[in-house]
Structures are given as C-alpha cells and as structure tokens.
Amino acid sequence: IAIGDLYDAMAGHDDSGASEKKASDFDIPTFSNENMQSNMKVIYYSRTFMSIIGGVIAGILGFTGLMGFIFYFLVMAITSIGLTAKAGFSIHSYFDSWNRIILDGFLGGLLSFVLFWTFAYDIVHIF
Amino acid sequence: MAVGFAVGVLGVLILSHAAYSTIQYRTLLKITEEEFSGPPINVVFELLLGLVLCMWAALAVPGKFQSIQLDSDENRVVALPSNLDFMIFNHRGKAFPLECTLKLK
C-alpha cells in the first residue's frame, strides 16, 4: 500500500514538474568561482597599493580637508579605468558584473589613504 | 612580473625624491618667510611621473586576470583536488526540476 502511494505521488509530481519546466528557465549562470576570487584579489591589491601611493602624493602636494578626499576619488577612478583596460574592456569574461570592477573596494582603501596622507604631510610640511 | 616590480620601485624612488625636493623648498620658504601655496612645477611633474609609474606597477605586479567562463581555453584542464572531502563538479544535474516535495511515509 505504501509503494502504491509512492507511485501515485511520483506521477502527480511529474506532471507538475513538467508544467513548471516549460514555465521557468533552468539556465543558472555558472562560472569558475576560484578564478573569480583570484581576480577579486588582484583588484584588491591594485586598489590598496594605489590608495597608499595616492596618500603619499596628497601629502606631498599639501592637500588639506576636502581637496584630499576629492583627490582620493580621482585616484580610485583612474584605477578603475586602468583595471578595465587591463581586463581588455571585455568584463564579462573575467567578472560577473560591472559593479565588481567599478564599485567594489572603492572605499576599502580610504583608511590607508588617510594614514599615508597624514604621514607624508607630517614629514614634508611639519617636521 | 619582475619588470613591473622594478617599475614600482622606480616610481617610489621618484616620489621620495619629490618629497625631499619639497622639504628643501619649504626650508627655503621659511628662510624667505613666504607662504607655502604649492610645490614648484618641476616637483609637480615629478609627482605625476611617479604616479604614472606606480599605476603601471599596480596593474602589472599582482598578476593577470583569469577567465571565469567555463568553456574558455584556459579552463579546460581541471585537476582533481587532493582533498577528497570537498570536490566540485559541473554536471547536468541542474537540468532536473528543482522542486522536490516527495516525502517517505
């Protein structure tokens, strides 16, 4: 009796499954996750290094206040353009969306930038 | 990779030379008691050159981008991981219907 119930349940569910197969799309986008993460690491290293260099330059130039933060966003924008050029402008073969290369990690280097900005400003202008 | 590293080191050296020039410029300004409005123009050019070199090093040193498409040429050969507890396979199981409400009574 239990086996009969199981057959009926399977038959019923096959019908509903078949109708659902026509309705929904089973094409889940898949990509190689480890390559994706290694690409994200590359972006992170590049952005961190450019934040530090941008901080040193802002300190040498003597920026104070808002000008420094504008300079930081300028350096990050130039880094984004550089990363896009490195990926050969065909983002979809290296990342899954544009946000990864443009927005991700944008504010992550801000604290390093401020640290080296203060450091360089102190060395060059105060001592 | 080594070329990118050398370019980065050169960029950092140029930046430190620009910092030293600015320090000397400031001591000169302190002697003549003028205000510091900006570093001299050759220091600005040096900073720009240092920025370009460091940007080049920042893009070249961390490594190349690897393709994430599963059917690209560099993703063809996949080695089986030595850790037998966690393996990832791509198979056609995703073509099965997702809903499964079968219950064993």
From TrEMBL, chain A:
Major site of localization recorded for this protein: endoplasmic reticulum
InterPro entries linked to this entry: Emc6, EMC6-like
Membrane topology according to the record: Multi-pass membrane protein
Domain of life: Eukaryota
Family statement: Belongs to the EMC6 family.
Xref: Pfam families: EMC6
UniProt name for this protein: ER membrane protein complex subunit 6
Coiled coil: none
Ranges that cross the membrane: 42-63, 69-89, 101-121
GO biological process: autophagosome assembly; protein folding in endoplasmic reticulum
GO cellular component, as recorded: EMC complex
Keyword line: Endoplasmic reticulum, Membrane, Transmembrane, Transmembrane helix
Compartment(s): Endoplasmic reticulum membrane
Automatic annotation (TrEMBL), chain B:
Location(s), subcellular: Endoplasmic reticulum membrane
Assembly information from the UniProt record: Component of the ER membrane protein complex (EMC).
Gene Ontology terms: cellular component: early endosome; EMC complex; Golgi apparatus; plasma membrane
Molecular function (Gene Ontology), one example: inorganic cation transmembrane transporter activity
InterPro entries: MMgT
Pfam family, one: MMgT
Transmembrane segments: 42-61
Family: Belongs to the membrane magnesium transporter (TC 1.A.67) family.
Protein name: Membrane magnesium transporter
Lineage: Eukaryota, Viridiplantae, Streptophyta, Embryophyta, Tracheophyta
